[in-house]
Amino acid sequence: MDLIAMAHDTGIVPVIVLNDKSEAVPAAKALLKGGINFMEITLRTPCALAAIKAVSEEVPDMIVGAGTVLDKESARKAVEAGAKFIVSPGFSEETVKFCLDEGVSIIPGCVTPTEIMAAIAMGLDTIKFFPADVFGGMKTLKGLASVFRHIKFMPTGGINLSNMAEYVSEPFITAVGGSFVCSSKDLLAKDYQAITDKASQAVNIIRQIKENIR
Questions:
Q1: pLDDT tens figures, 25-49
Q2: Catalytic-role residue among 29, 40, 53, 84
Q3: Known catalytic residue: 57?
Q4: Is 40 an annotated catalytic residue?
Q5: E strands, 55-202, where?
Q6: pTM of the entire structure?
């Protein structure tokens, strides 16, 4: 199963910060209802690993991964909990090697040509560009894509429903990431309908762009 290709088909990987394990399964079901079958649960909170495990076991149609993975040990724990893919904010050769050895998809963060070349040297062809808005957004991405023509980017940071079309329309963008579809505010309010509605909006934007490209 090529998860990177599947992420490209979906076009968006929601970044989710959970404060309680009980939020995980309802959030996953809300995203699925809105047409999104990927979710990146960040390891920023103590309940993250338990949340990944819950989604992995209880919502089999959701492809759940771990985000904010800072080292090999965190990646190992996430995979053991059921994470199907790993996303890190930066590039760690040790973490990438672990994931490759385990057969787990990894999307490391790279924002400079040197970091991208390090990822290429390890056989990767998809990277995270984070934080996208801070490092120049689409202007920088276009410059990098003109040199690294076989690399796909997953920009995250500063992307929302109003500007995501600018990113998704570019052929070198495999998917966009962000918390705007499944926000901490909606999770705290247990407003899962709002999550479904935003997911549907994002999916419709992506679908229209891809149909126009065809």
A1: 999 999 999 999 999 999 999 999 9
A2: 40
A3: no
A4: yes
A5: 63-67, 85-87, 105-107, 126-129, 152-155, 176-178
A6: 0.95
